[in-house]
Amino acid sequence: MIAEKQYIIPTTINEAIEKAKANAGHFKYLAGGTDVMVNRYQGNETSLCLIDITKIDELKGISKQDNYLRIGSLEILEELKFNTEIKTEFPMLIEAALSVGAPLLRKTATIGGNVLCENRCLFYNQSEWWREAVGYCLKCEGDICIATGGKNACFSELVSDTAPALIAMNAEIEFIDENGKQKQKLENIYTGDGVKPRNLSETAIVTAILLPLNKNYKTAFFKLRERESLEFTSLTSAVAVDKNGNIKIALSGVDPKPVVVEGTTSDDIQELIKKAVKSARAVENDMYSRKYRREMIAVFLEKSFAKLFE
């Protein structure tokens, strides 16, 4: 039987998953807490059971394994800048990590938590009394998207900054649930459904991020927000070109999932930019307008390719 409130601190992955199964439908994993605790304060997260995974050593550490750099999901964003391998091969990840929130948040937030951060919307991420007054939306058990007036889809946006940087560099995600250890491309965990933005099982624990080594990436990263040291993104763009001329564009902040466009240096760059703009399903649920954010996609990508091909 589920207690009225529980705070559980497991020391192994297996223990954490067993506790999660015992509290199915009523729990939330907790790491840095910079996303979960804010949502609890706003009344958007009400789980009776919190499972604190910060004591699980299996989720920590950065090491080379086969042809990948393996970054434990509990690695702190602020600490990534001190790792030699990341500085040498994946400096865009450091740039992305240091763009997240404010310095105090980055000293607590984890890389696993950032790629899994809850989708956001101007009409959802408000106080409970505000949501009750304006009307509940699809993401909080209402029957309408307040931003669009539609009843079929939630367009709350992916706001992770590390996710597009990692995706552009072909990152994979490693996770464990009751079915064992699995891994897949990072972009594949995002559904595009703002209500249920990830397709991981409820009990799944992200164990690591895997970045392929020896790709010699040239990269460009930009972020749009109202206040540089505080706001969630209104648009994050990441572009990577590997040693073979493969191009990968990844965007967040303009769609419920990452916008991903792939090509090569022999492709028409303007067509790749147009495809990225067209793919973004931004709606009027941000402090910046939909029109402006879509225009800024083209601006950021033009600047990115100018930097990469200078």
Features:
alpha+beta; 2 domains; four-stranded antiparallel sheet; five-stranded antiparallel sheet; Uridine Diphospho-n-acetylenolpyruvylglucosamine Reductase, domain 3; Uridine Diphospho-n-acetylenolpyruvylglucosamine Reductase, domain 2; 310 residues
Any chance you could write out the topology, listing elements then pairs?
Layout: E1 6-8, H1 13-22, E2 27-30, H2 36-41, E3 49-52, E4 62-65, E5 68-72, H3 84-89, H4 91-97, H5 103-106, H6 111-115, H7 128-134, H8 162-168, E6 172-177, E7 180-185, E8 205-212, E9 218-224, E10 235-241, E11 246-252, E12 259-264, H9 269-279, H10 290-308
Parallel strand pairs: 1-3, 2-3
Antiparallel strand pairs: 4-5, 5-8, 6-7, 6-8, 9-10, 10-11, 11-12
Helix pairs in contact: 9-10
